[in-house]
Design a protein that fits this description.
With about 350 residues, the chain is of the alpha+beta class. Helices cover about 45% and strands about 20% of the residues.
Amino acid sequence: MSKPASVIYAPEHCGSRHAHDHFEVSAEPPANQLLAWRDRVGHVIDVLPTSHATTTHFNASIDRYKLGDRIFTDCSSDALLLDRSIPRISTDNVRDYVFQVFTQGAMESIRGGSLDSGTSAMASIVAMDMNQPIRMNRGRCRVLTFFVSRPVVEAALPHAESIHGRVFENTTPVTQLMIEHVAAFSRQLPSLSSAEAAASFDTAVQLMLAAFSKQAKLGGHVRAAARSAMFDKARRYVQSNLYQPWLTPEYVLMAMQLPRATLYRLFQHEGGLGRYILNCRLREAADELVRYPDRQVIEIAYSLGFNSASAFTRAFRRRYDLAPQDHRLMAAQRIGRAAQGNRSVAGRIDQ
């Protein structure tokens, strides 16, 4: 399949240093258009083709700007089903937070984070943690995307992971203000200097972080800082004891020496402390299944506090929509394809 050439350049005006990469699929025959798009965005998220994907026209284009350590994209596309699965997460290193602002169209449905059952929402602004699974059904749209490093988001929000899958609909003056600011930033970006682009990018991110903080009731200056410190301490305790069979909410309560109501409020955005412990163990198990392909599933399950293989499999399937064995197989296939691609590139270089 031939691929449309991407053009990478820095705008010529004085002081600009941001690289710009434009890509579109219009030059491809219809049978290849969605596949070309899947190849282009596949380093971040998987495009799931429909049964008629190779028989109909598919329109899509993207402008990608690298602003120092910041990344911004302006994308227009027809309807898409997008998926970032746990096998995918276990085999890549993309861990940013992503904020998507829809200036045309919207996210029609989203599943991930607190939306485990799948929630329909005509979302105008969506937040995602790329370290967590998500599936999105997106209508025809134009979407402006901010890739923000974990330290930036986690410094601003006490429970940053809890914003994964959260949405805003364009129904309030504040939301409208955010969308207008982001749209103006996108229009002006080609003519901005590096310093101006970075400052405008950061302003947009801070607006969105403030909005999500207010929505999740995570703000509050001194109280929020104290709550954040307590949450981080409890989270570190859980993470360092995932392999201890005695790890339960009661043991965390004793170790933290906090009132029960205070501790449980800290984890309300995670579905409760018990759910948080379970999800951390399942996430660790997902990585272990890939890291140690010869280790038996039951061994990993027992080491992380599960009483039986069936209990582990049920919990894993509820969390990730696939069995542990299927996760391991899919991850191995992805690693194999990546290795084959690297060998092909090396072969072309040697020729």
